[in-house]
Specification:
By secondary structure, the chain is an alpha+beta fold. The strands form 5 sheets. Strands 4, 5, 6, 7 and 10 form a 5-stranded antiparallel beta sheet that branches. It is elongated and about 155 Å long. The relative contact order is 0.07.
Length: 405
């Protein structure tokens, strides 16, 4: 009996917190002291057990410090792992971004190279066309308004025909009428040509609002009135004199779009010219002589061809070529192709007949692509009637690989 009598509702609290006879554990139980005494004897134990308690407390603190160090080391390790993981992810992202950037730059370079190649190919094709003497030659004058204030414009060179005379176009838009001139130039084939040059050059100012209509056409003639303009160029790039038209086209009609006539010559500050034809008198004389020889041995309609060994060619699914023929004197050259056993969907049921264009001696003086009708007859060999007749048409829908030069 501790001598204290609390009310019933406070008895439990008294026993747990205040009663001097309640057996309690040492305050340093957490450090390892296992002594249990009545509450009234515990103060004496704390004083008397100081020597025992201090090592226990030290060992406890040491354990706690070790646990803290282990926990810190664990956190540091996890932090380092997280840091390395983040660095790895950042490195991978940087590599991915660098790879994407490199791919983008490579694609950009490839596209730039492709565009440059296409431009070079286009320019090379135009240059090749102009150097080969293939007409029409397309010439584009850019920055027209710039040339209205200062200098004139010279085109790239072109040739009158393969291994022919070298020329260029000069355009002046700094006067009221547009002026156009043709210059002879020093060329690669001059040693093999006749001098002075005699001929005509047909120049077109292209209507950029329509494909095949509204072009302004003029012909420039070279004559003996200025020998320095028709003689061989030796000491400079271009001839001293020129031939052309000072009043080629009215400047006031150059710009603007005419809806009524669907006509626009100046577009995007560019003028487009076309050298559609060059007539070289000396070359025409030479060709005239060649034509007399050629025409003496060419076929001109009506022409009759005989195809032999039909059975053998039918069994072998062979194709028969006729000798070439011309549509007319100095015309288009063609050949007849016959499949006795048919071809494609007609194989085994019909005879297939085709007409193909062939490279001819007069091609550079003809209009391309070819347009016209070819009438073919399969002859009745018993009498001069009841022949089987078909007509093959080269229409506007025929592509250049079929009707082109």
């Amino acid at each position: 009996d501790c001598g204290v009598y609390p009310e019933r509702q406070n008895l439990e609290h008294h026993v747990a917190k205040d009663c001097s006879l309640t057996v309690v554990s040492c305050d340093f139980h957490y450090a390892g002291c296992e002594v249990q005494l009545p509450r009234k004897d515990m103060p004496a134990h704390l004083v008397e057990g100081l020597v025992v308690h201090l090592p226990l407390i030290a060992a406890y603190n040491k354990r706690k410090l070790a646990e803290r160090d282990q926990l810190i080391a664990k956190f540091q390790k996890e932090l380092e792992q997280s840091r390395r993981k983040v660095e790895k992810m950042e490195k991978e992202k940087r590599q991915e971004i660098a790879s994407l950037k490199a791919q983008y730059e490579e694609h950009s370079r490839s596209i730039a190279k492709l565009i440059a190649k296409q431009e070079k190919d286009r320019s090379s094709l135009e240059t090749l066309q102009s150097y080969a003497g293939i007409f029409p030659v397309q010439l584009t004058m850019t920055d027209v308004h710039k040339h209205t204030n200062d200098d004139t414009w010279f085109s790239k060179p072109f040739y009158t025909h393969p291994h022919g005379y070298k020329m260029c176009l000069k355009v002046a838009v700094n006067s009221t009428p547009v002026s156009v001139y043709i210059y002879l130039m020093r060329g690669e084939f001059d040693d093999h040509l006749r001098w002075p040059f005699q001929g005509q050059v047909t120049v077109q100012l292209i209507n950029q609002a329509a494909k095949d209509e509204g072009h302004y056409t003029s012909t420039i003639s070279f004559s003996n009135i200025r020998q320095s303009g028709i003689s061989r160029v030796v000491d400079s790039e271009r001839a001293v004199d020129w031939f052309g038209q000072a009043k080629f086209f009215p400047l006031r009609e150059l710009s603007g779009y005419s809806a009524e006539e669907n006509c626009q010559y100046l577009k995007d500050d560019c003028l487009r010219f076309e050298i559609s034809r060059v007539t070289d008198v000396d070359r025409m004389v030479q060709l005239e002589r060649q034509c007399l020889v050629i025409e003496s041995r060419v076929f001109i309609p009506p022409i009759e061809f005989t195809m032999s060994d039909i059975d053998q060619q039918t069994n072998e699914n062979a194709m028969w070529y006729s000798p070439s023929f011309y549509t007319h004197q100095r015309g288009y050259r063609m050949s007849l192709h016959v499949f006795p056993n048919g071809i494609a969907a007609a194989k085994g049921t019909h005879v297939s007949v085709y007409v193909c264009l062939v490279r001819g001696e007069f091609d550079e003086y003809l209009k391309w692509p070819f347009r016209g009708d070819i009438t073919i007859q399969l002859l009745n060999q018993l009498e001069d009637k009841n022949h089987h007749e078909i007509k093959i048409r080269f229409t506007d829908t025929a592509t250049d690989d079929i009707a082109g030069r």
